[in-house]
Design goal:
This protein folds into three domains: 5-104, Fumarase C, Chain B, domain 1 (Orthogonal Bundle); 109-148 and 161-206 and 218-351, Up-down Bundle (Fumarase C, Chain A, domain 2), CATH 1.20.200; 357-458, Ribonucleotide Reductase Protein R1, domain 1. The protein is 61% helix and 4% strand. It has 19 helices and four strands. It has helices at residues 14-20, 23-26, 30-46, 52-70, 83-95, 108-144, 164-189, 208-214, 224-229, 232-258, 286-309, 323-346, 352-361, 366-375, 380-397, 406-412, 420-423, 426-431, 441-458, and strands spanning 149-154, 157-163, 266-267, 349-350. The protein has a two-stranded antiparallel sheet. Helix 10 runs parallel beside helix 12 (323-346). The chain is elongated, with a radius of gyration of 30 Å.
Length: 463
């Protein structure tokens, strides 16, 4: 029996029912639906709209339904239109007439708005915790590799020497911003829509502030039309998750490159790799590739919901039902990607020797050779040209700058002295970059301590 069936004289066409129903996916928030209903009933009883006997019967009935679903004693059947109908119908079957009073003073419009907000709040907290674990793993890598020298790149060309700690620190910053964005969304969305009715509130004397308090919201929403029509918080979440997926994808792209035979910077653990059905020598970075690939799926959810919302007049429209499958899939995808990525990098081996050798052979210390000349009185533009000639010489000989003899240095510029070797060593090139945010060891130690303190303060403090 449809909750709205009184107006109709014919049964819904089965195809229409199948097209219209949402139980197949909105059953995902059965717990939030029951949680919201219990708060609503407590408020109705407090306001004298429901009797205390009805309150007790309804709450006991709803609690029993929740327990039975969680313990597998009650299956969510396919006959109902949505999770709200299923819960209310099951409640009425169990407790009789009192169950029919559950829906007093509310609409499915504000009910579904509440359920989606409650579900989204919970998922944001889970996403933040997964990012927290990822940040801890990144920090562990940074602490272990503060003196692991490697080339830094621009345009995928070797540019200047850095450390692995410095490189990974860039991603620590990215994922920290992601966590902050999720916090902002939680703060902005944490207002309760229940009591808004279909779009114009209700004539019942509801205490919306009390309902909001029971459900952990900061307060009630202030416009009933916006309350049932708002999906901004989902668009914000999809946007934030798209950025998370993009950050994961960028790092995965680098890991895939680093894992190639040409680079050999890393070795991905067997537990996060797969092989080839025909080529026995292959060890493929499939997890990194799949995370990179699933980024497009998350982007698609965001674009789909933006497109769905762009032409909708106020207030509620059935189009909005499309928000759920898109958001549910994107959340599950991003959560899975973060977990797998964290596991992959925690088991990955970094080849320190190969990284340092690559930095040397890529002339990443060329800028430092130019700085050496400038410090000895050579104008920078002249120094730039001199070092360019050094690089050409090395390319012709197939050697690195460090491999040149002093005579070869001085043949191009007599300014060079024996201390040039110290000046262009990987250690010197990195260590003399001491400004905060640079890869030098002292600067990195300060940053690592800042990150460590931040994570410690956040532990157990997150909403």
């Amino acid at each position: 029996m449809k909750l709205w069936g009184g107006r109709f004289t014919k049964e819904t066409n089965q195809l229409v029912h199948n097209f219209n129903e949402s139980l197949s996916f909105d059953q995902k928030f059965y717990r939030q639906d029951i949680q919201g209903s219990i708060a609503h009933v407590k408020m109705l009883a407090r306001q004298g709209i429901l009797s205390r006997e009805d309150e007790e019967a309804i709450i006991n009935g709803l609690s029993g339904i929740l327990d039975d679903i969680q313990e597998g004693r009650l299956a969510i059947g396919s006959g109902a239109e949505d999770i709200h109908s299923f819960v209310e119908e099951t409640l009425t079957q169990r407790i009789g007439e009192a169950g029919k009073r559950l829906h007093t003073g509310r609409s499915r419009n504000d009910q579904v708005a509440l359920d989606m907000k409650l579900y989204t709040r919970d998922q944001i907290l889970e996403l933040k915790e997964l990012l927290h674990q990822l940040l801890k793993e990144l920090l562990t890598i940074m602490e272990e590799h503060i003196d692991t020298f490697m080339p830094g790149f621009t345009h995928l060309q070797k540019a200047q020497p850095i450390t692995l700690a410095h490189h990974v620190g860039a991603y620590f910053e990215m994922f920290s911003r992601d966590k902050s964005r999720l916090h902002d969304i939680w703060e902005r969305m944490n207002y309760c829509p229940l009591g808004s009715g279909a779009l114009a509130g209700t004539t019942y004397n509801l205490d919306r502030a009390y309902t909001a308090e029971l459900l952990g919201f900061y307060g009630p929403t202030l416009n009933s039309m916006d309350s049932v029509a708002d999906r901004d918080y989902l668009l914000e979440l999809l946007s934030a998750m798209s950025i998370i997926a993009m950050h994961l994808s960028r790092f995965c792209e680098e890991i895939i490159i680093w894992n190639t035979n040409e680079y050999r910077f890393v070795e991905i653990d067997d537990s996060y790799s797969t092989g080839s059905s025909i080529m026995p020598q292959k060890k493929n970075p499939d997890i990194a590739e799949l995370i990179r690939g699933k980024t497009g799926r998350v982007y698609g959810a965001m674009i789909s919901l933006l497109t769905t919302m762009k032409g909708l007049p106020l207030a509620y429209n059935k189009d909005m039902q499309e928000d759920k499958e898109l958001t549910f899939d994107a959340i599950d995808t991003v959560k899975g990607c973060i977990q797998l990525f964290t596991g992959m990098i925690s088991t990955m081996t970094f080849r320190k020797d190969v990284m340092e050798r690559s930095a040397k052979n890529g002339f990443t210390n060329a800028t430092d050779a130019a700085d050496y000349l400038v410090k000895h009185g050579v104008p920078f533009r002249d120094a730039h040209g001199i070092v360019g000639r050094l690089v050409l010489f090395c390319l012709d000989k197939g050697i690195a700058l460090d491999d040149m003899t002093l005579e070869e240095f001085q043949a191009i510029s007599p300014v060079f002295q024996e201390d040039i070797y110290e000046a262009i060593s990987m250690k010197t090139c990195v260590e003399k970059r001491t400004t905060i945010g640079a890869p030098g060891q002292e600067a990195m130690k300060q940053v690592i301590q800042t990150y460590k303190k931040m994570l410690e303060e956040e532990t157990g403090n997150d909403k």
